Amino acid sequence: MTSVKAEPETTAEQAARETFDSLDPATDEVVGTYPVHTADDVATAVERARAASSWWAGLGFAGREERLQRWKGVLTRRSAQLAELVHAETGKPHGDAMLEIVLAIDHTAWAAKHARKVLGPKRRAAGLLMANQAAIVEYQPLGVVGVIGPWNYPVFTPMGSIVYALAAGNAVVFKPSELTPGVGKWLADTFAEVVPEHPVFQVVTGFGETGAALCRAGVDKLAFTGSPATGKKIMAACAETLTQVLIEAGGKDALLVDSDADVPAAADAAVWGGMSNAGQTCVGVERVYVHERVYDDFVKKVVDVASSVRAGSDAEAKFGPITMPAQLEIIRRHIADALSRGGRALVGGEDAVGDRYVQPTVLVDVPEDSAAVREETFGPTLTIAKVRDMDEAIAKANDSRYGLASAVFSKSRGVELARRLRSGMTSVNGVISFAGIPSLPFGGIGDSGFGRIHGPEGLREFARAKAIAKQRFKPPLLLTTFSRTAKTDATVAKLITVLHGKRR
Ligand code: NAD
Predict the structure, then answer these.
(1) What is the percentage of the chain residues whose pLDDT exceeds 70?
(2) Torsions phi, psi of 34, nearest 5?
(3) Active site residue 282
(4) How many whole angstroms from its chain centre is CA 191?
(5) Which residue range(s) make up the domain with 139?
(6) What is the pLDDT of residue 477?
(7) Is there an atom of ligand 1 within 6 Å of 149 CB?
(8) Residue 207: CB within 6 Å of ligand 1?
(9) Where are the beta strands (DSSP E) in 212-252?
(10) Within a domain: residue 433?
(11) Which of 89, 248, 376, 461 is catalytic?
(12) pTM, whole model, 2 decimals?
């Protein structure tokens, strides 16, 4: 097959193309200018990806692993450059940018290394009735996967779909958030340096319309990460062509603190889990339920820790600005509503919401039916509620339309409580730990979406099961023929009675 190269655009075409700017949210400086790709552009990208996908699939697990591991090396060696771009487009501190890059690199290595073991051909037991057959299952690539990503973790989040889809043998067309197009382009450009032969991983840039066009461009699966409201639009668009979807949406994650918990560790985790990245984390802590026996001690420690951190763009600031300006109003509304309904701000409050930055805010006595407890705030805020026991904590934590992740601090009952939490992932005596373990699946329940990225489940999400039954020898009982005799039917009836007819 010949390689498919992009036709260079003429100057007239370039001039006619609509563009948009990516801004630094701390300064409004233009970080870069990118094309608004039209439905035609997206269709062309998917068409090119289609041709590239057969070449990529044909490389086999070993060929893909070798290239993905080389890409991983490039990501690692140039991580400082990528972190600078993430910092510029999102405003998050360099350290936080590095953290998400490090995790994405580890996931890339894992997906590349484990794809063959998880997806490669495997023998299954054929069963007594079909003992003459060899049963084989293997997971084949879907073809072209469309990925639509958010801005809050512009490397880690989309890479959870991109690298698992690539490792499974698919080509990828990625539409990054309009707030972080530069990061998306950087990822595709570095991949193309390692895999120059075909456009196996392409990026299209633009707003919601470009994303909607990707849903309708004939991809074999659409992996979306973003808000539940957009997730519903994506599903509706994909339904037109029966295109499969994976939805990684928002959350309202709870952290539970049991009476025997390590309270200082729980307080530290609650503040970091709730406020790092300015609270703009899908699996960030938003609500805390604390056993009455340790409540006062926990609240005091949370206040101490939260009072010691602040937002800003200087080196001492622990987190940066609110990346999406429209979110400021949502955070302000949640805090105001909580306070007007009897809640108290022990740290921060309404004044904590500025023009770009939101300072840490810790709310107590907030009614359970208020916006600050029920809706995704996506800011550096925590609500803390006292509970009689862990049954009440579980009931309150589970009373949410979301179900992304959760955390439990308990010395004796951590795993037991984790099992009872209605969420896709739970950390015990830590927060967000599951995200750094590549072998664990990641995904939600309810309005947090469905489908899984990461781990073996994440690889299978981007593949289709292929079943092969191969006759090894002629069967003693010929079942699949019109020449089947009454005697055969009687023998089968006897056999099935012996096998399955026993009363228990
Ligand atoms: P968003 O829903 O506004 O946008 C996400 C992406 O969808 C963007 O690329 C956007 O351009 C695109 N889009 C918008 N309208 C579209 C349409 N009609 N058709 C197709 N694409 C369209 O979300 P956001 O503000 O970028 O991200 C924040 C949200 O993402 C939060 O709710 C957060 O919890 C969630 N999130 C979830 C996870 C997870 O893994 N579950 C991870 C990170 C973020």
Answers:
(1) 97
(2) -135, 150
(3) yes
(4) 20
(5) 34-247+454-464
(6) 85
(7) yes
(8) yes
(9) 221-225, 244-248
(10) no
(11) 248
(12) 0.95
- CATH code at position 73: 3.40.605.10
Is 149 a residue whose pLDDT tops 80? yes
79 phi, psi to nearest 5 deg: -65, -30
Distance between CA 377 and CA 375 in Å, rounded?
A: 6
CB distance 402 to ligand 1 below 6 Å: no
pLDDT at 1: 36
| Mean predicted confidence (pLDDT) in 80-85 | 98
- Nearest residue CA, atom 13 of ligand 1? 208
Q: What is the mean pLDDT of residues 377-400?
A: 98
Tell me, in angstroms, the distance from the centre of ligand 1 to residue 202's CA. 19
* φ/ψ of residue 358, rounded to 5: -125, 125
For 171, the token pair is: 């080509």
Instruction: Look up the CATH number of the domain holding residue 329.
Output: 3.40.309.10
Together in a domain, 169 and 277? no
Identify the residue whose C-alpha is closest to ligand 1 atom 4.
226
- State the Cα–Cα distance between residues 258 and 339, nearest whole angstrom: 26
Do 204 and 287 fall into the same domain?
no
Tens of pLDDT, residues 20-57 = 999 999 999 999 999 999 999 999 999 999 999 999 99
The answer to whether the beta carbons of residues 201 and 166 sit under 8 Å apart is yes
Q: Report d(CA 227, CA 249) in Å as an integer.
A: 5
d(CA 320, CA 96): 10
* pLDDT of residue 9 exceeding 90: no
